Amino acid sequence: MTLGPKRFGKRHLYFLGSSFMQVKLKDLARMTGYSITTVSRALAGYSDVNEQTRQHIIETARQLGYVPNQAARQLRNQSSATLGMIIPAIERSFSNDFFSQLMQGIGDSASLYHYDVLISAQHPGEEEMAAYRRLVGGYRVDGMILARTRQHDPRIAYLKERGHPFAVSGRAAPGEVSDFPYIDVDSQAGIRMLVEHFLELNHRHIGLILPPPDVAYTGYRFEGYREALRSAGLAYRQEYIVHGDLTRVGGFDGAQRLLAQNPEITAIVACNDLMALGAMSAIQSAGLRVGEDVGVAGFDDVPAAEYAHPPLTTIHQPIYEIGQRLVRMVIDIIKGQPPAETQVVLPPVLIVRASSGLRRR
């Protein structure tokens, strides 16, 4: 039989025999003198509850150690209070600095809204789409966050067809309609800035390591490269272009191919930092000096870029903050509150470090 409440310091503990009993709304109502409805609305943050009353109820709940029945709340609201994100398994994305920063921003922001984040690593293709159907079709998540959009992206098509809330890190590919909520960095301008930086250092033979052709931002970054060459009056040379897979290995292999086939190249722009770091290793393995014989630049400004040897010139994008903003965007959509901005393009920021070297004679 219930023997409480008993007072221990500033906390009230209800217990049955020798076992603690979970504090319920009716216990809070009895202790505060308010109705269960008032207590419930105060804890849920409804504006029709007097602020002094709300604070009294919240403090009493804290002292009693009240924990809301989340499962019941979710059932009533038809909500899982969970966001989903599926990342590409083939890139070992949990150890990828870009995805690590993005997921940290997502996780930190989600916790402020009392949301959990369900993360799954899947191989792109049918395995990945099956995971989307499990999460979305099975009502396991209230909203999805996507990263690294692709040409004619089937994930976006599926979420739009289902009418499921989502937000994306990245726009659609050039020529496609970006009719969905996204946050992106102007990577066309970013790559143009890197090429212009090398041109100012008197480089005239600049190689480019692009992402895979199906990645949506590949077209933007390729066009940024060509824009800079056109502005400088330099001819575009197809042999100066290779594709990598966005990993260090891809950057290593790409730089090896560029230098073996075009030994006149004196600078390489890689379209992400991991490939740039791989390119630096390839240059050093060939007995050349990064920043002196061959300049290197990347894109993202992941933590490893600053501590590379030599430190990597790159384009900074606020990856952690993008993760935070995507959470706020998708939660607004979930709640039926249109976000203030649904299509955001951020300006790139050039970070010059030693890997690009000094002006050439």
Task: Please give a handful of descriptors for the protein shown.
361 residues, 434 Repressor (Amino-terminal Domain), Rossmann fold, 3 domains, six-stranded parallel β-sheet, 13 helices, elongated
Please render the helix and strand layout as text.
Layout: E1 6-8, E2 11-13, E3 15-16, E4 19-20, H1 25-32, H2 36-44, H3 51-64, H4 70-77, E5 82-88, H5 97-112, E6 116-122, H6 126-137, E7 143-147, H7 154-162, E8 166-169, E9 182-185, H8 187-200, E10 206-210, H9 218-231, E11 241-243, H10 248-261, E12 267-270, H11 273-285, E13 295-297, H12 303-306, E14 314-316, H13 319-334, E15 343-346, E16 349-351
Parallel strand pairs: 5-6, 5-7, 7-8, 8-9, 9-15, 10-11, 10-12, 12-13
Antiparallel strand pairs: 1-2, 3-4, 14-16
Q: What do you see in this structure?
A:
By secondary structure, the chain is α/β, with parallel strands linked by helices. The protein has 3 domains: 6-68, Orthogonal Bundle (434 Repressor (Amino-terminal Domain)), CATH 1.10.260.40; 82-184 and 319-346, Rossmann fold; 187-317 and 349-356, Rossmann fold (3-Layer(aba) Sandwich). It is built from 13 helices and 16 strands. The chain has helices spanning 25-32, 36-44, 51-64, 70-77, 97-112, 126-137, 154-162, 187-200, 218-231, 248-261, 273-285, 303-306, 319-334, and strands spanning 6-8, 11-13, 15-16, 19-20, 82-88, 116-122, 143-147, 166-169, 182-185, 206-210, 241-243, 267-270, 295-297, 314-316, 343-346, 349-351. The strands form 5 sheets. The protein has a 6-stranded parallel β-sheet, with helices on both faces. Strand 1 (6-8) and strand 2 (11-13) form a beta hairpin. Helix 6 (126-137) packs parallel to helix 7 (154-162) and helix 10 (248-261) crosses helix 11 (273-285). The radius of gyration is 27 Å and the shape is elongated. The protein starts with 5 loop residues before the first strand and ends in a 10-residue tail after the last strand.
